[in-house]
Design a protein that fits this description.
Helix content: 40-55%
Strand order of the largest sheet: 1-2
Radius of gyration: 41 Å
Oligomer: single chain
Shape: flat
Distance between the termini: 141 Å
Structural class: mainly alpha
Largest sheet: 2 strands, antiparallel
Number of helices: 19
Order of helices and strands: HHHHHHHHHHHHHHHHHHEHEEEEE
Length: 440
């Protein structure tokens, strides 16, 4: 019994437990192998293993002239598996053999685009990948632009994530023609729905597309006024992937830049209560709180873009205050002088505390008369504008003297005396302690 207790040590117990665990795992693996169904190569579909963006080169794609042979063999009469495989290999050949891709024609583009109407979603996806590869050749971009309405329809009518990403990537590689703006205007709610509901890959691509559309003057207001759900601001959470947050901040920056453009500010726009404009730029927007949290994001690219958006939003608020304020001189109107003759001022100190206007000048002469030299019509009204303004009454200039020199308008502290000799205006020093200036 004593020998038995000597064997039960911590080291021996740990060794036994480790061995038992290893035996259990090996036996479980062998049992799973015996219970698995037999291997059947016919049930495997290798086309599902295709890489989404840039496929890995295959041995067949490296064969000279293979791209032309594949295009000649591509036909709508093939089965779905052959269509997918052929289109996938065509995409590989285009990326790997630029010279053979340049030798293709617009007829080849039309042939590949025919499979956008195929009934199988995987075939449509491979056709989108092939067209995206063809955009590497500049002259084919213009031809592929003809299929933008069909591509938009595929993206907005299907919730297949692979198909959506392929279509959005193709749209981002093209110059969106102006004749599709009407269609895009009606599809904006669908794009925002993809932004809220799709996976990260689709969100990044749809944000790139929306940033491009925000730079179109005729689409900016439609994007701003698009109805946005309350959870839109949840897309600014710091826990989201950095590439998605960066594209989201770029999109907001594009909207802010467009909102500050002279063309956009020249119009008076009306927005709905739940519009994207009110969510981002409205007085009750909570976006600033979300942006402050992104300043300390681990990725420097997101931090820098968040700072740019904060400055842009501040500039928008300052610009809004300037636009909403009344224009300079808006409450100033220029009227003809009611009278061109100023009578005696009984108390000069009263005049120094009041603005010089017709309402403050007595109309009945009571003593020494002082008159302005001005042109009159039959009614006695003056045609001269108010002193210190030009003909429009908006800009100011110094008053001319009789000797053609200029000096600024001085403060009127006493009554004005007209010099009968040179027809100019002299402003005598003010009188104090009620002294009279009758001796002048």
């Amino acid at each position: 019994m004593k020998k038995y207790y000597d064997l039960v040590t911590k080291k021996n117990v740990l060794t036994a437990a480790t061995g038992a665990t290893a035996i259990y795992l090996v036996s479980k693996t062998l049992l799973s192998m015996f219970r698995s169904p037999p291997y059947n190569p016919d049930q495997m579909n290798f086309t599902n293993l295709a890489i989404e963006y840039y496929p890995v080169a295959s041995a067949r794609a490296n064969v000279p002239g293979e791209l032309r042979r594949l295009l000649l063999s591509l036909s709508p009469n093939l089965d779905d598996n052959s269509k997918r495989t052929t289109l996938h290999t065509i995409t590989q050949c285009i990326y790997l053999k630029e010279s053979e891709a340049n030798a293709c024609t617009n007829d080849d583009i039309r042939l590949v685009a025919l499979f956008l109407d195929d009934g199988d979603k995987a075939v449509k996806t491979e056709a989108l990948h092939a067209l995206k590869a063809f955009t590497a050749v500049w002259r084919f971009k213009i031809k592929i632009q003809e299929y933008v309405p069909k591509i938009i329809e595929l993206v907005t009518s299907s919730w297949d994530p692979t198909l959506q990403v392929a279509g959005l990537r193709l749209l981002n590689g093209l110059n969106i023609p102006d004749n599709t703006h009407t269609l895009l205007r009606g599809m904006l709610p669908n794009f925002l729905e993809i932004l809220l509901m799709a996976n990260t890959f689709a969100q990044v691509q749809v944000l790139k597309l929306l940033s491009t559309l925000a730079q179109k003057e005729d689409l900016l207001y439609d994007i701003m006024n698009c109805r946005t759900p309350a959870e839109f601001l949840s897309l600014f959470q710091p826990s989201l992937p950095g590439n998605m947050l960066y594209e989201m901040l770029v999109f907001v920056e594009r909207l802010s830049e467009g909102r500050l453009s002279p063309q956009y500010q020249s119009m008076q726009w009306q927005y709905g209560d739940n519009s994207l404009h009110e969510t981002i730029f409205g007085n009750n927007s909570r976006l600033s709180d979300r942006l402050l949290a992104l300043i300390i994001h681990p990725e420097e690219e997101v931090q820098a873009q968040a700072c740019k958006v904060i400055l842009s939003l501040r500039l928008n608020r300052e610009e809004s205050k300037v636009v909403s304020a009344p224009a300079f001189g808006a409450n100033i109107s220029v009227h003809p002088l009611e009278s061109t003759r100023i009578s005696q001022v009984s108390n000069p100190s009263d005049l120094s505390n009041q603005p010089l206007s017709p309402n403050n000048v007595p109309s009945e002469p009571t003593g020494t008369n002082v008159s302005f030299d001005s042109t009159h019509d039959n009614s006695g009204r003056s045609f001269h504008t108010i002193l210190g303004t030009d003909e429009t009454g908006h800009s100011f200039y110094p008053l001319p003297r009789a000797d053609h020199s200029f000096y600024p308008l001085e403060t009127v502290s006493s009554h004005i005396v007209q010099d009968q000799r040179d027809n100019s205006f002299n402003i005598p020093p003010p009188c104090y302690s009620g002294e009279s200036d009758n001796g002048v």
